[in-house]
Amino acid sequence: MSDQGIPFHRHIISLICMAIISGGLVFYFQKPSLASYSTSQSSDELEKIHQLYTKIQNEYYQEVNSDLLIEGALKGMTDSLADPYTSYLNQEAAASFTTSLSGEFEGIGATLQLVDDLPEVAQSPVKNSPAEKSGLRVHDQILQVDGRITKGLPLSEIVSFIRGEKGTSVQLQIKRADEIFDVAVVRDVIPVYSVYGQLASENSTIGQIEIVNFSQNTALELKEMIEELRKEGATSWLIDLRQNPGGYLDQVEKMASMFLEDGEKIVQFSLKNQILGEVVASQKLDQGFKVQEPVVVLVDGGSASASEIFAAALKESANVPIVGTTTYGKGTVQSVSSFQDQSELKLTVQKWLTPSGNWLHETGLEPDIVIDFPEYAYLIPLSKKQTLKLNDELAEISTLNQFLQALGYLTTVENSYSLVTKQAVEQFQMDNQLEVTGEVDQETASLIEIRLSQHLKKTDPMRQKALETLTEMIQ
What we know:
Number of strands: 22
Shape: flat
CATH topology of the largest domain: 2-enoyl-CoA Hydratase, Chain A, domain 1
Strand content: 15-25%
Helix content: 25-40%
Structural class: alpha/beta
Largest sheet: 6 strands, mixed
CATH architecture of the largest domain: Alpha-Beta Complex
CATH class of the largest domain: Alpha Beta
Strand order of the largest sheet: 12-13-14-18-19-22
């Protein structure tokens, strides 16, 4: 599994008020009620909890909020399992969790989880969110929000600081590895779509489809996108699952079935080393809608759970080539159940296995063709708080020079702000209608990153290799 961040062209983050695990989910669509699970059914086991609750209520030196005690006990039980994919979601978090896979919300666009009492960017971005240019990545920790320290605060409170009206800005202090820097993001309405598609510019017979998650209607969205692109002339498919964190199990089963012959395995399920059952492609799943044209699937280290089920099913049951880097490696299934007050329990209930019986947990799916972005794509953003200038020897000067080299303004990379760097900056400013100072201020730094993002999107070696592989298949 790659521990690198999201490349610049994928620097889109979505803010959803929920404690969702890093690496995504596979979970059941239905939400059975937990109301029938009465404490009276196990009164002996829970007697100690009742005693502690009563003791605190009666003898604690300050007034106690009983709801907070109960919420804390519920969260404590799920936390004690030491399973990052099992959690208790209060009413607000549960509502936002549902919204993340349907509808729309206002924010900057980043799914968060609490790790060691700090909010952390937990999953891949909502496409076309306002934070696309901010440079945030999975596993970034948010130390401050508009000057407020976040450590130790409830996730819902942190999210309330970050969310706000469309058009307003929020300042985030980010920690990435050993680096700390600030990012300003303008809030907007974030639509939650899951499928995007177009004909490849290099070959108008190739339909390029990006699936960003597996939400409630993703199977239908995929079917409609394929039908639309077929009308435009697509006769082969590049399915991009990069940075797709997963989602509903029923959706990935329907989608994988579209690409397989009836009877071919999609996924198996296991509990305590015993196979519980399997799902195979069928008309019941795909309603008879099949994709029989050539297909290549694109994945990376952010492709998790349902993405891995989809890619493994096509790879092992249909010999579809997989291109990219090793996937995340999340091989468990969660159920989502609701309490009467609309809070929810997300609980790991079983393992999932590939059609060949492989458990990819913590190992991931190895692509048939391994290819990654260049190293500069994973460097941290340039500082926007200070101006970089001639003779500076700050650590990030090397990053600046690598960016300038990638954009064609330098042939070699140095660690200092030399005269050569100054001249390169001047040329960049001239080419982009900026004031020519030879110094990198906030405006110049931001535009360098925008141009680099555009360059990476245009050159994208992973996508190019996938297109090359697909072109060879259809010749």
